[in-house]
Amino acid sequence: MSTSSPTAPPKTGIPGLLENWRRDLLSGFLVFLIALPLCLGISMASGVPPMAGIISAIIGGVVVSRISGSFVTINGPAAGLIVVIYDSVQSLSQGDAMAGYRYTLAAIVVASVLQIFLGVFKAGKLSAFFPSAVVHGMLAAIGIIIMAKQIHTLVGVKPAAQTLLGTIAEIPHSIMELNPEVSLIGLLGLALLIAWAVIKNPILKMVPAPLLVVLLGLALGQYFDLDHIHQYLFLPDAEILPHHEFTVGPAFLVAVPENFMSGFYFPDFSKIADHEFWIAVVAIWLVGSLESLLSASAVDKLDPYKRNSNLNRDLTAVGVGNLLAGMIGGLPMIAEIVRSSANVNNGAKTAWANFFHGAFLLIFVALFPRLIHEIPLSSLAALLVFTGFRLASPKEFAKTLSVGMDNFAVFVITIIGVLATDLLIGVAIGIVAKLLIHISRGLKLHNIFSLVHDVHQPDADTHHIQISGAAVFSNLISLKSLLADLPEGKSVFFDLTDADLIDHTVMEFIDHFAEEYNHNGGKCEIVGLDNHHSYSNHHLAARRRVNV
Fold first, then answer.
1. How far is residue 533's CA from residue 542's CA, in Å, rounded to a whole number?
2. Is 532 in a helix, a strand, or coil?
3. Which residues of 216-231 are buried (b: 16+ CB within 10 A; e: fewer)?
4. How much is the average pLDDT of 517-525?
5. Mind listing the pLDDT tens digit for each residue in 44-101?
6. Best CA proximity match to 106, nearest among 305, 272, 311
7. Closest of 148, 152, 154 to residue 168, by C-alpha
8. pLDDT of 184 over the 50 cut
9. Residue 492 burial (CB < 10 Å; 0-12/13-18/19+)?
10. Quick one: 235 and 263 in the same domain?
11. Most Cβ neighbours (<10 Å): which of 431, 432, 471, 509?
């Protein structure tokens, strides 16, 4: 599992399988152990049958791995889409959760077609339009929502509130009314996840923490006999508890069909003319595409061979996978960072590791559905609470603040916007807030979507890119298109001397491009920032030119 930088990248396709099958098979198995509980938990939190997440991960591994443009990414359902799917099921259900699920499957299918078009027409660069503070704010808000909803499941209480803010407000009441045995399973699982995050021992870290949480939950579930409905007394002499008699039973365990084939459901397109249906389509399409592109780019940075994914092909492949998943009852998938990171750390070499992870999931759910049924819901809730905390941890707030107060303000505004309204409106509020900050700093209206740049070639091996006016997230797409066509191995100079305003998103993009270009054998430098005022001490903070 060496992380030293190798020279020759592994082969792909069948030659890559023959060359690296041992490492990829082992990594695929270890990732399967992580993916199984996460897929179940994400399904549960999304308000759909548990098998939906498993179906998505199987297709993501067995099908998408064979046509994607990435190398070490793992495709499957992700926490970032929980809120989108849950809201879709609720808004389309009209009181019938199963009907809402089938309408949502239809929305997934339509969104997948749009996603395929994005990839085919090489529109992956549209992800540049979303400022990083808004994206991080969206993910942090999703983390808060996941925690708010799953804390109730972790302590074994069903909240009465129907709204998000009501669900958050009801947390103290659920804690006071907690079911002791169910809570013990969830809290011990959460403690184990926290301990595993702190432990540095590489041998212990080889054992996936989600697997340990599930094994602990299985053991405690058997000890507390959750298979059978019964009541028990807890501390009958304690006066501080509101009551002492509690009920447990199979309702606190994962519900899966005994027959794998009976876990398939088919989409219902009868609401395709409704306004709510198209809101769901846009949300699934937008958030899924954005997360997949950002995740695939992040995973490329973890690859010891520094291979760059073909993002447009990857987006097309994920769209095809989502189309198939939506047709048979699966959740939408993305290139998932946590499982992909584990894949890299386990020594995976090629996309066959993704294939093997999907194959192991298929074999397991087909042969051992009864074992999945024995997993307590509170164990899965512990995994989700921990995942939600990582998305909205104090470190994320501190990291955003370090870039600049303007970045932090947009981050917080996006979080509040998502929590107070919904995902799409919250993201739109964040984007408008970012634009207003730029306008207050001198961004001209005609510059909002137009980036002025010139390319000079003093010689065949040198590209001099001069940027004028304002370079901000909303006009970055044209620059991204330009750089995508630059040949490798040349000398590239970004001259920002005449740039009046440069925001963090652009600075971050240029810095990442320069790093990758230099790594691939070229030479890329950023010049012309001497007369710019930085809005914070961060090296990639927004800057404004000072008239001298």
1. 9
2. strand
3. bbbebbeebebeeeee
4. 89
5. 999 999 999 999 999 999 999 999 999 999 999 999 899 999 999 999 998 899 999 9
6. 272
7. 148
8. yes
9. buried
10. yes
11. 471
Query: What CATH number did the domain enclosing 466 receive?
Result: 3.30.750.24
C-alpha 82: how far from chain center: 10
Other CB atoms within 10 Å distance of the CB of residue 90: 16
Helix (H, G, I), strand (E, B) or coil at 296: helix
- Beta-sheet strands, E only, within 414-545: 452-456, 462-471, 491-495, 499-502, 523-527, 532-534, 543-545
Helix, coil or strand: residue 192: helix
The model scores a pTM over 0.70: yes
Q: What's the CA gap between 463 and 517, in Å, rounded?
A: 13
Q: Has residue 298 got a pLDDT over 90?
A: no
Can you read off the two tokens belonging to residue 484?
């995508």
Question: Would you say residue 331 lies in a domain?
Answer: yes
Find the domain containing 340 and state its range: 13-386
Q: Which DSSP symbol is given to 80? A: G
Q: What is the 3-state secondary structure (H, E, C) of 218-261?
A: HHHHHHCCCCCCEEEECCCCCCCCCCCEEEECHHHECCCCCCHH
Helices and strands (DSSP H and E) totals, the chain: 22, 11
Q: Are residues 441 and 451 in the same domain?
A: no
Residue range 527-538, pLDDT digits in tens:
999 999 999 999
- Considering its fold, how many domains does the chain have in total? 3
Rounded Cα distance between 547 and 159, Å, is 58
362: enclosing H helix or E strand? helix 352-367
Say if residue 21's pLDDT is above 50: yes
Tokens 């809570």 identify what position? 183
Task: Supply the angle between the helices 209-223 and 13-46 in degrees, to the nearest 10.
Answer: 50
Give the 3-state secondary structure of residue 99.
helix
Say whether both 371 and 237 belong to one domain. Answer: yes
Query: Does residue 48 sit in the same domain as residue 159?
Result: yes
Tell whether 451 and 441 lie within a shared domain.
no
Place of tokens 């991960």: 57
Cα separation of 193 and 212, whole Å? 9
Residue with tokens 């303007």: 406
DSSP 330: P
CA distance 474 to 349: 37
As a whole number of angstroms, the distance between CA 149 and CA 161 comes to: 10
Distance separating alpha carbons of residues 365 and 103, to the nearest angstrom: 25
342 and 411 in a single domain? The answer is no
How far is it, in rounded angstroms, from Cα 336 to Cα 162?
A: 30
- Per the rule left: phi > 0, alpha: psi between -120 and 50, beta: everything else, 235 is left
Closest CA to 33 of 383, 321, 387, 370: 383
Tracing tokens 């299985």 back to the chain, one arrives at 218
Residue 40's nearest CA partner among 214, 224, 221 is 214
